[in-house]
UniProtKB/TrEMBL annotation:
One Pfam family of this chain: Trypsin
Protein name from the UniProt record: Peptidase S1 domain-containing protein
Protein's organism: Anopheles atroparvus (European mosquito)
Peptidase S1 domain boundaries: 10-271, 332-561, 662-899
Keywords, alphabetical: Signal
UniProt-listed GO biological process terms: proteolysis
Length: 899
């Protein structure tokens, strides 16, 4: 079966992987729009925490000889060397916001707290706090930075903030230009000080070799890292320059005081000086959120996506918890106790199947297994009982090879699943989204407004990461003392984002998806490519390793397809339908079994029904009803019916009008927005007026097709049809035509909706114009378009819905008890894009139609085809299954009953 062409094969269930996009097309996203570049900041926000420390001389001139970091609204962190100059004089003034001269703030120093064990000669304990005489005014140009107070420094790259405007005496004059120089830790290389090995100092390789460049780093300059959160970065000070440089002592490995070693002393000083700061205020997540609205944004993060769909490169994404219902938590019974893997997740790949790691569901030594999976939301959780668990037969505990399992749920779930990407490795060249869980307040884009709603509840979200070659990955993991037994580039893949995150922003979900939105059949749907296996901070900074799904697709198909509702096992009785759009009517063709024939309308081929019944291959020569028929099976004396000829030449006959409509719409956007094929069916009233109760579809110059329920809406027959009026801006651009005859299908059953079809014939053939002309009939009996539009009519106005047909097997599974899918019927669901709020909509009425537009690249209005007419259904919820009468099943009846 070839089903990746945007067509849905009737009478079958969905084949695993290849047609997932058709089965769940109704959830696809099509709201991508170009992003408007964000306006640049009016001020520089990069260095709002950087302070210049000065000495006021007797002449009134200030020597700005040191640097510091604002850590609270009235405290600056610096080195102890910066608390005295060569004459043992203390500094008396601090300046902030120097990168924005118009917004500088200057404060007097009211108190100096130097570390009591400071040793000037050895650079030990080279740290101090300066208290300001009054608080600074926090704004976009002046705001405290954060401190990295953890005992370890895990970042391989750091920024050393330096000044570039100094005089011959290494003193800053005027307003300096602050810049950043990327520096790398030496990882063991000795600093100049003999005390560098005690953990209080960081040795930083600056890469400087020219003595003149050494003048750019006075004492106290910050060593920092910018951590990502809320599409912004906050500065986290890791160290401060110990000692000071001179023009004659260019140190290739500079010493920085590691402030994480002094967390207790810093908080103790703040408390003693009656600062409002508390130890909790310096937790990374708390500090990052405090001034998030004032931090510089990372524009490329915002610009690469529209809403939740990845479009370019580097991004952090947030979505409402409900949009992540396809990521579930695996729940164990209480008896499993500590042996249970309670940190694992799973990924729904259809509404009854969850993929996860085998290690996440492997039985405990006592034989306990997971019993359910859980949707975790902010306000409520929902459990889904597990029916069965199948682990890969090649999985061995402790090894990462074949570390995959399939969970079957006891009943289908309503979440929008992620499709499995079963094809090539083309997604490796793209950035991809890694699912994680983190504090909600650190995820969303808060812009420049204070986020009073920011919370710390766990929230699922996606982090964009880049493919990392396997050799590079293993080298990186070795640096962090991580090894994964059994991992290989044949079954595993590695990702990383070099931008580090604020701790708490994202934790890896073992078994969670690595995914990407892929455009298929006109919509973007999410495809899962791999399952997260190991990593720290969701691949940011330290690489993340995931298990590829593609190598396991054959095994997954065998497990998932077995006994799936609505899916028949592959057997010789299943017909193989092949669409060859390059073949047209009268072309020579082959069915692939050695028989040579010609492309003819299916009703002219005597063997087609039997070939379908036997499960033999049938080639469709086009998307319509033309089949490849062996020469000897073409019906003799098959005279061309003029009605059939008119129906089959629909596109050709309407071409001139469609070209005119396109040109007319370019000059007048509303004049040609009417529906030229729609006809309103009218009944005379006692007051002499005409009441239009329902609609039909003009298919020839004298025939309208509608439902039998519409035709028999009243006890008397309709008498008039109004064509081309709907959605028309000009009331003169329509046709009012008397009805000559109404033909209801002779086997119509009002109770079941069987054969719910009728023809309304006009008293005379109309003369088509650009405002009203016949539409086309979709006559393919085996396939229907996967993406259609439903047209509501309430007697006054129209409403269009995206609608999506269902496989017959899926329809039967979801139909109400006691209801049967009849021959000639088609089930469909109304569109419900993944990110849309689910709302109920008004229901269809008899005669409402389902149409498909055949898209082309020509400069012409695309031809429209009538696919089905609404039959019946319950419309309480947007997920209710509705039923329509397929036009193709009654094509011959229509041809034979048009007089």
């Amino acid at each position: 079966m070839v089903s990746c062409t945007g067509w849905l094969l009737l009478l079958s269930g969905a084949a695993f992987c290849n047609d997932c996009h058709l089965r769940y097309l109704r959830y696809g996203r099509d709201d991508l729009k170009p992003q408007t570049p964000l306006p640049p900041y009016e001020e520089n926000r990069e260095y709002s925490h950087v302070a210049a420390i000065g000495w006021t001389r007797s002449s009134g001139k200030i020597d700005w000889a040191c640097m510091g970091t604002l850590i609270w609204d009235n405290f600056v962190l610096t080195s102890a060397h910066c608390t005295m100059d060569e004459s043992n004089t203390a500094p008396d003034v601090v300046r902030l916001g120097e990168a924005n001269p118009a917004h500088m703030q200057q404060r007097k120093i009211s108190h100096i707290a130097r570390h009591p064990d400071f040793a000037p000669q050895t650079e030990r304990n080279d740290i101090a706090l300066l208290q300001l005489d009054k608080r600074i005014i926090v704004n976009q140009t002046v705001a405290p930075g954060c401190m990295w107070l953890a005992p370890e420094t895990i970042f391989p790259k750091l920024q050393s903030l330096v000044r570039s405007k100094v005089d011959a005496n290494n003193r800053i004059q005027g307003i300096p230009v602050i810049s950043s120089v990327e520096s790398a830790q030496t990882n063991g290389r000795k600093c100049v000080s003999s005390t560098s090995g005690d953990g209080e100092l960081l040795c930083i390789e600056t890469g400087e070799s020219e003595p003149t460049k050494c003048l750019d780093a006075p004492a106290g300059n910050p060593l920092q890292v910018r951590l990502l959160h809320n599409y912004k970065t906050s500065p986290f000070v890791v160290g401060i320059r110990a000692g000071s440089r001179s023009a004659t002592s260019c140190k290739p490995a500079g010493a920085y005081t590691r402030i994480g070693s002094y967390a207790t002393w810093i908080t103790q000083v703040l408390a003693e000086r009656n600062a409002t700061a508390k130890p909790v205020d310096f937790i990374p997540a708390v500090c990052a959120l405090r001034f998030a609205h004032l931090r510089p944004r990372v524009d490329e993060l915002l610009m690469e996506r529209f809403d939740e769909i990845q479009t370019l490169g580097l991004q952090v994404e947030w979505r409402h918890t409900e949009d992540f219902r396809y990521i579930v938590r695996i729940v164990w019974p209480a008896e499993a106790a500590q042996a249970a893997r309670n940190d694992c997740a799973g990924t729904l790949v259809d509404q009854s199947t969850v993929l996860t790691l085998a290690e996440c569901v492997a039985p405990t030594p006592e034989g306990h297994k997971p019993t359910e999976v859980l949707h975790t939301g902010r306000y409520e959780n929902a459990s889904l009982p597990i029916k069965s668990i199948t682990m890969h037969p090649g999985y061995v505990r402790g090894s990462q090879a074949n570390n995959i399992a399939v969970i079957k749920l006891a009943k289908p779930d309503g979440a929008v699943p992620a499709c499995v990407w079963p094809f090539d490795d083309s997604m490796l060249i793209m950035r991809i989204d890694l699912a994680g869980v983190g504090a909600s307040g650190l995820i969303g884009d808060i812009g420049d407004a204070i986020d009073d709603q920011g919370g710390v509840f766990p929230s699922h979200h996606l982090r964009a990461v880049d493919y990392l070659p396997w050799a590079n990955c293993t080298d990186e993991l070795t640096k962090f003392n991580r090894t994964l037994r059994g991992a290989s580039d044949e079954q595993h893949v590695c990702f990383r984002n070099e931008q580090w995150l604020v701790p708490g922003s994202c934790g890896l979900l073992p078994g969670g998806p690595l995914q990407r939105y892929i455009g298929r059949a006109g919509s973007a749907l999410k495809y899962v490519y791999a399952l997260s296996l190991a990593g720290r901070s969701c691949g940011h900074g330290i690489p993340a390793v995931a298990l590829l799904l593609r190598p396991h697709v054959p095994w997954l198909r065998s497990v998932i397809m077995e006994g799936a509702p609505g899916i028949r096992p592959q057997a010789t009785s299943d017909s193989v339908i092949v669409i060859n759009p390059d073949l047209q009517r009268s072309d020579e063709c082959s069915n692939g079994d050695g028989t040579v024939g010609i492309c003819v309308p299916h009703e002219m081929c005597l063997s087609t029904p039997e070939r379908l019944r036997k499960g033999e291959r049938v080639t469709l020569c086009s998307v319509g009803s033309v089949v490849c028929c062996p020469w000897g099976d073409i019906a003799r004396n098959a005279a061309v019916n003029p009605v059939r000829k008119e129906l089959e030449s629909c596109e050709t006959r309407s071409r001139e009008f469609r070209e005119q409509r396109l040109r007319g719409r370019e000059s007048n956007s509303t004049e040609f927005d009417n529906f030229p094929h729609l006809a309103e069916i009218g009944w005379p009233q006692s007051n002499g007026r005409i009441q239009f109760n329902c609609i039909g579809y003009l298919i020839t110059t004298n025939t309208i097709v509608t439902s039998a329920r519409c035709a028999e809406a009243k006890s008397w027959k309709p008498t008039v049809a109004r064509i081309g009026m709907l959605n028309s801006e000009n009331p003169s651009n329509y046709l009012l035509q008397p009805i000559r005859r109404v033909t209801v299908h002779e086997e119509y059953d009002d109770n079941t909706g069987a054969n719910n079809l009728a023809l309304v014939q006009l008293t005379a053939h109309i003369k088509p114009t650009v405002f009203f002309f016949p539409g086309c009939l979709f006559s393919n009996e085996t396939h229907v378009p996967a993406r259609q539009y439903g047209v509501h009519y309430d007697g006054a106005s129209l409403q269009l819905d995206r609608i999506f047909p269902m496989y017959d097997g899926d329809c039967r599974e979801r139909q109400p008890i006691g209801e049967t899918l009849l021959q000639g019927h088609m089930c469909f669901l109304r569109g419900r894009a993944e990110a849309e709020l689910v709302r109920t909509t008004r229901c269809y009425t008899p005669g409402d139609i389902m149409v498909w537009t055949r898209l082309t690249e020509e400069q012409i209005d695309d031809a429209e085809y009538l696919v089905a007419i609404y039959n019946h259904g319950v419309c309480r919820e947007v997920d209710d299954v509705l039923t329509a009468t397929r036009i193709s099943a009654y094509y011959e009846w229509i041809v034979n009953n048009i007089k």
